[in-house]
Amino acid sequence: MFKNLLKPILFFIPLAVVQLTLVPMISIGSIAPNLIFVLITFFTLKNGQAFGTLLGFIIGFFLDLISGGLIGAFMFSFTLSAFIAGYFYNENKIEFNTASFFFLIIIFICGSISAFVFAMISNSNSDVNLFFLIFEEGLFPGLYTAFFGLPMIIFAPKKRMI
Amino acid sequence: MLNFLRRLAADYKEYILLIVLSVISLTLLSKSEKPQAKHLQTFALGNFAVLSEITNSITSIFKKDISLDELTKENAKLMLEVNRMRKLRSENEELRAMISFRDTSKYPLIPAKVISKLVTKIQGNFIINKGSSDEIKKGMPVLSEKGLIGLIMDVAENYSVVRTLNNSNLNIAVTLQRTNVNGILNYDGRNLVIKDIPTTYDVQVGDRVETSDFSSLFPPSIPVGIVKKKESNVLGLLHNITVTTFANISGANNLFILKVVPSKQINDLEMNLLKQN
């Protein structure tokens, strides 16, 4: 398992650079996609729930360190949402889960949960209402993140279906 | 018993893993403001920011002309000067005697560039390309050419983390320039709001908002924004005032750090939330 973790962690480095430098340019009113979470979901669906949970934890820790935010916020939200993404893991349906539109639905569900949990635990303002957190901090970023799963299903199948 | 435990661990390993990792994450979250955690973070972001800066320098080709930096810096100085003059004009003779206030326009400005941003609705953070080697210290105010942007929260050797006004964890003491009404400005995820201002106080839409003399974080008279609207609560006794910032915080790329030397007296007070541990 630990050997398999190396590959997504290596992918994480360039993706984190993109997340912190280029993604802010395409954010819509402070709603931004989380490319790192697409990576975590992809590897969770390929390797299983336990693997995904551990990967979410490690990558969340690294992202917390380099983003300047609260240490533990991404860690917890990625751990939890990768665990939930792990429920969609099926070793007989790996191709289907990662190369069909079902992949986008999984990213949307788990990405929304991840964004919502992150907002919940990193927010110290008690006046922020739950409706706001669910929609603007949960569902909208989840939807935007799911959009960035499209390249995975457009380009990946051709290679694998041969 | 051992076999039972082994079987339990095998059957529920995902759940056990989730619980263990969640506990570790939440423990770290509760200790994220501890100096050890901050050291680790500044070390990590100091190294990683090199990559971000390279990427940023490539993408900045498509952004603003770098030769405008000097003009922008001059503009920021003038903005502070104009604001100070406006305030002086509106004050009476008694207040003029207090001109020995700290004068924000005399503080040196250090230009900096944003190299990465954490985009969330609630946690606005920037990483900028100036750090302790440029004499940046935790707690220094960060401005754009139009007004206040935020505050330096962590400093690595060549990079710093800026907590912006669009961060629900930042509360700042502000005052309305025209009437000297004081309040606490906080981000509620949508707007910057000054809460619980009595309705008897004179507040009008369009009033200029600036940092207060009472602020333990910022020097006084740094322009923040203008009053956009005021809403009274159910009983009609208190107002919530929504403020629009002068500076475009989400779109900021070129910033200035106001090189304020922290006051030892303020720093020694318990009320200073940014007191070095």
Task: Outline the structure in words.
The complex is a heterodimer of chains A (162) and B (277). Chain A has helices at residues 2-21, 35-47, 49-67, 73-85, 94-99, 101-122, 130-147, 150-161. With 162 residues, chain A is mainly alpha-helical. Chain A has one domain. The longest helix of chain A is centred in the C-terminal third of the chain and has 22 residues, at 101-122. Chain B is of the alpha+beta class and 277 residues long. In chain B, 30% of the residues lie in helices and 29% in strands. Chain B has helices at 2-11, 13-30, 35-59, 69-90, 93-96, 264-268, and strands at 109-118, 123-128, 141-143, 148-155, 160-167, 171-176, 182-187, 192-198, 208-211, 223-232, 238-245, 254-258. The model of chain B is unreliable at 97-103 (pLDDT under 50). Chains A and B meet through helix 1, helix 3, helix 4, helix 6 and helix 7 of A and helix 2, helix 3, strand 1 and strand 2 of B.
Keywords:
heterodimer, A: 162 residues, mainly alpha, 0% strand, B: 277 residues, alpha+beta, Thrombin, subunit H, 2 domains, six-stranded antiparallel beta barrel, 6 helices, globular
Q: How do you describe this structure in short?
A:
The complex is a heterodimer of chains A (162) and B (277). Chain A is mainly alpha-helical.
Helix content of chain B: 25-40%
What is the CATH architecture term of the largest domain in chain B? Beta Barrel
The oligomeric state of the chains shown is heterodimer
Task: Write down how many β-strands of chain A occur, each being a DSSP E stretch of 2 or more residues.
Answer: 0
The gross shape of chain B turns out to be: globular
Query: Count the helices of chain A. How many?
Result: 8
* CATH fold annotation of the largest domain in chain B: Thrombin, subunit H
The computed structural class of chain B is alpha+beta
The major sheet of chain B is characterized as: 6 strands, antiparallel, barrel
Mean pLDDT of chain A: 87
Number of strands of chain B: 12
Largest pleated sheet of chain A? none
Order of helices and strands of chain B: HHHHHEEEEEEEEEEEEH
What string, H for helix and E for strand, traces the elements of chain A in order?
Answer: HHHHHHHH
- List segments of chain B where confidence is low: pLDDT < 50 over at least 5 consecutive residues: 97-103
CATH class of the largest domain in chain B: Mainly Beta
